[in-house]
Amino acid sequence: MKVKLKKEDISKGYLILINPDHLLQKNTMNLIFYNEEFKNIELEQEANNQLHLALDTIKSNNRIVPVSGYRTLEEQIDIYESSLKDNGEEFTKKFVALPNASEHQTGLAIDLALNEGKIDFICPSFPYHGICQEFRNVAPKFGFIERYKNDKKKITKISKEEWHFRYVGYPHSEIINNLDFCLEEYIDYIKTFTYPNNPLIYNEYKIFYVPYKDNHYIELNDDYLISGNNVDGFILTTKGER
Questions:
Q1: Alpha helices for the chain (secondary structure H)
Q2: Which residue among 42, 134, 146, 161 is the active-site one?
Q3: Minimal CA–CA distance to 8: which of 157, 182, 187, 212?
Q4: What is the pLDDT along the chain (242 residues), one digit of tens a residue?
Q5: Measuring CA to CA, which residue among 110, 131, 163 is closest to residue 58?
Q6: C-alpha dist (Å) from residue 145 to 32, 34, 196, 216, 220
Q7: Residue 93: other Cβ atoms inside 10 A
Q8: How far apart are alpha carbons 63 and 67 in whole angstroms?
Q9: Which is the most buried residue in 207, 217, 219, 236, by most CB within 10 A?
Q10: Active site (annotated) includes residue 103
């Protein structure tokens, strides 16, 4: 079947890049409550489902709790301005994204905390050992990446946030983790695998970069997923025989 790739769809999908250079255009995600206990926290539906599967796999039993999920533009403005007032400019620029540069506005990002004592909303504790590390180890199998690492902060422009996880979907999460990429690096990397004749092959998946062109149609089978990259095109993922 033929699928038309529209310009407005560049800013939609699980692989959109959100940072100070590539701002969120519009949130189109289907949001749901994290669970009955945390009705103040929302996530995109598939991201929420996969997050719970990951936590069930490691038998978290509420030892890991959500701190912050989806935020409106107004909430992000309030958090940024409050942090400037309470913590100062240097701290805020390190740990709080500018409004419309925050992944939390997509519904695809979650801040998690070790459920132990008082939890800091801006910098919750999520150590590299114990149950938190168990989650970190399985997260890529369920579509999540640790988004902001210390050795990538010159690229991401955000300091290390060991508590912040971003849903990008499988197999992209596992490829990013295996190659030790941040999302910015992965978006650039995929551009070397152009549709239709030069796929990135990972297990039973084929992944292509499709640059945006006016009135562009591509021919696809039924088993595919397309995401914009919020930069200049699309990432096409198909599953089937190699």
A1: 45-57, 73-87, 89-95, 130-138, 153-156, 172-179, 183-190
A2: 161
A3: 212
A4: 899 999 999 999 999 999 999 999 988 889 999 999 999 999 999 999 999 999 999 999 999 999 999 999 999 999 999 999 999 999 998 888 999 999 999 999 999 999 998 999 999 999 999 999 999 999 999 999 999 999 999 999 999 999 999 999 999 999 999 999 999 999 999 999 999 999 999 999 999 999 999 888 898 877 899 999 999 999 999 987 54
A5: 131
A6: 20, 18, 27, 31, 28
A7: 16
A8: 13
A9: 236
A10: no
Amino acid at 34: Y
Encoded amino acid at 26, one letter: K
The order of strands in the sheet holding 144-148 is 64-68, 109-114, 161-167, 144-148
Residue 225 phi/psi, 5-degree rounding, is -140, 135
